[in-house]
Design goal:
three-stranded mixed beta sheet; disordered N terminus; eight-stranded mixed beta sheet
């Protein structure tokens, strides 16, 4: 219902418009002058214009890149996102040192171990792992994020910071096709292809591709694979059967307690992968059972195609130290 005040303003405008047609811009100017501030937002929406959404603008300190001297000053990335974006809230509060630092260190060490060969960031959200891989290593970086607004934010962040990241607005799964992406009511970090994973009252239809299909189509095969798709991680790996068997990438994967352990075990055990829960300083303890952390404190795992070398653990420790050094 339009308030009496707004009705009066628009009726007055309509009287002046009798017998002529004002351009839409004139109507907007008239409304700005005549309608109180508290009503402008709704009036402008009726006319097809929305007020600017509040933003987070974060100058995010990142550790030094490969080959930089130990005394090199930390660099920053300019991160702009709507304030509703969950990951930006975390980064604004504690920076990278408070955002899965052990997992980030393990991810960067794996890239170093594989000689900066291609990296796939599956379930990228706004792209934290992709930004660091592109900013700190010479690797080809491909980010997969099916949520349209998150993919758009990632593209904008990469463009503003001159980061070479190929952003693919597609979900990865066990078979190609289309699927419903269920948008979480609570946080944009919990969107999932699995119905019922989190409370959701809306969904969007998204294309689905497999890693094997993408690698065959583009000629880009991952040497390092980060997977965080909110309970569909086994489907992502099922769609990478050829890549896992032939390319044997290092995998950083979220494991949700009581949901994905048995499926991940069935996929990786025949391939001879080594399993490590990322839960502290290295060398991490080799695990013989994939078991999610019910406290959700340590949800990410390293699945290594071979026993990690001393050089890997040294790189892991080095990246942990570099991330700690830029703590807010």
């Amino acid at each position: 219902m339009i308030s009496a005040e707004l009705h009066s303003a628009t009726e007055s405008g309509a009287n002046r418009l009798h017998g002529t047609m004002w351009p839409m811009s004139s109507m907007i100017v008239s409304l700005r002058r005549r309608v109180p501030k508290r009503l402008r937002s709704g009036a402008l929406r009726l006319l097809g214009r929305r007020p600017a959404e509040p933003e987070h603008v974060i100058d995010l300190a990142i550790p030094r890149a490969f080959g930089e001297s130990p005394g090199a000053l930390p660099r920053t990335l300019r991160i702009r996102t709507p304030v509703r974006t969950y990951v930006s809230h975390l980064l604004a509060g504690s920076g990278l040192a408070g955002y899965e630092p052990d997992t980030l260190a393990c991810f960067l060490a794996a890239i170093e171990e594989r000689g900066s060969a291609p990296v796939f960031d599956v379930g990228a959200n706004i792209g934290v792992f992709s930004w660091l891989a592109a900013a700190l290593t010479p690797a080809i970086v491909v980010a997969f994020e099916p949520t349209p607004d998150l993919a758009a934010q990632m593209r904008a962040i990469c463009a503003e910071n001159h980061l070479e990241v190929r952003v693919e607005e597609v979900a990865l799964g066990a078979a190609p096709g289309t699927a419903e992406l269920h948008i979480s009511d609570k946080t944009d970090s919990s969107n999932s292809l699995r119905a019922g994973f989190r409370p959701s009252h809306r969904s969007v239809s998204v294309p689905v591709e497999t890693i094997d299909g993408y690698a065959a189509r583009t000629g880009v095969t991952p040497a390092v694979l980060k997977v965080d798709t909110e309970s569909t991680e086994p489907d992502v790996l099922r769609g990478a059967a050829e890549v896992l068997a032939a390319g044997r990438p290092w995998i950083i994967c979220e494991v949700l307690a009581g949901r994905t352990e048995s499926d991940l075990t069935a996929i990786l055990e025949p391939l001879g992968y080594w399993w490590y829960r990322i839960d502290g300083p290295g060398p991490l303890e080799r695990r013989h059972v994939i078991e999610g952390d019910p406290t959700y404190a340590h949800m990410n795992w390293l699945f290594a195609p071979e026993e990690p070398s001393p050089a890997f653990w040294q790189a892991f420790a080095g990246w942990r130290g570099s991330l700690a050094a830029i703590a807010k």
